Amino acid sequence: MSYEEKNNALIRHREARYYQERLQAAETLRKKSADLTSAVTPEDMPWETCPQGIIKYMVHEKMNTVENTLDIMMQFVPEGSRSGKHRHLGEEYMFIVEGRGYSLHWDVEMVLGETYAWKIPEKPSRWEWEAGDSVYIPPNTIHQHFNSDPDNPLRFISAESRVITYMGLDDLEQIENAPEYEAK
Q: For the chain, how many structural domains are there in total?
């Protein structure tokens, strides 16, 4: 080991309490968690008609639940309709509860220079699914879901990690609104 490195390692001009503060934050979180709910009833789940469509929130950071890393929602797509079309940095997982349809995915390529930009393919990939299937949406993928059944509604559960948001990387972009939102 070089002599200069040892001298630099021993320089002590500032003091910190980072670890102590982390311990205190952990204790505060434990106390706060005691007031959070572990069971969410259907009556506690709020609805929203938004640019992405008709959503019933099962777990959300504003719902005072113990879960603090995932947002889970149930989305309803009426007969023959579609969701909004959007992109977000975090990955998403969907479980098809009822109905059948397909998703279109535009796998976005990031182009990095002085700034960053997205290179979007002209043609999307198409993913067919039905009740009981699960669908993975990779990070940063533009996606849209279609109910291909003209007689029955589509219902799926979707989960996204909040970690991306906590890291300051929540890059959400709405590209096209759901028809149900436009009709509002």
A: 1
